Amino acid sequence: MYAEFDDTLITGNEMIDSQHRELIGRINELLRSCEEQADRMAAMKMLNYLADYTEFHFKAEEELQESIGYPGIKEHKEKHEELRRTVAELHEMLEEQEGPSDEFVEAVNKNVTEWLYYHIKGFDRSVAEYKFMRDNQERL
What are the pLDDT digits (tens) for 33-59? Predict the structure, then answer.
């Protein structure tokens, strides 16, 4: 099952939304590598590719939150740390196995894709709404 960026994931912030599209694309590339090659090194390479972009995205998102004085930044950063731990666990899982197993793919879907959907719809949408309200106080 591949991840999909649909209307329910739109936050209204162009930077955040474009980075989420990229994250979902990288999740799908990881899943495709697991299906097509079933090779541990290929999956590890794609997991690293996803992890690198995740770090880039988290940094950009946290800088945005700091720049607008977002009051929920501490909790948001804690949620980002959850995904970092998950990715580290996925690395360990791959290192212990010959290749990406069905269990690994299931863990990616449950612990990365579902986490991301939940995070976007709640935490990230909240940041985008806060920024919009802050930037458009005169229109409200």
Answer: 888 867 788 889 999 999 999 999 999
The structure's pTM equals 0.88
79 touches 126 (CB < 8 A) = no
| In-domain check, residue 116 | yes
SS (H, E, C) the chain: CCCCCCHHHCCCCHHHHHHHHHHHHHHHHHHHHHHHCCCHHHHHHHHHHHHHHHHHHHHHHHHHHHHHCCCCHHHHHHHHHHHHHHHHHHHHHHHHCCCCCHHHHHHHHHHHHHHHHHHHHHHHHHHHHHHHHHHCHHHC
Range of the domain at 65: 13-139
Q: Rounded to whole angstroms, how far apart are CA atoms 93 and 101?
A: 9
| Spatial distance between the Cα atoms of 97 and 28, rounded to a whole number of angstroms | 21
Confirm whether 1 is domain-assigned: no
- For residue 55, being part of any structural domain is answered with yes
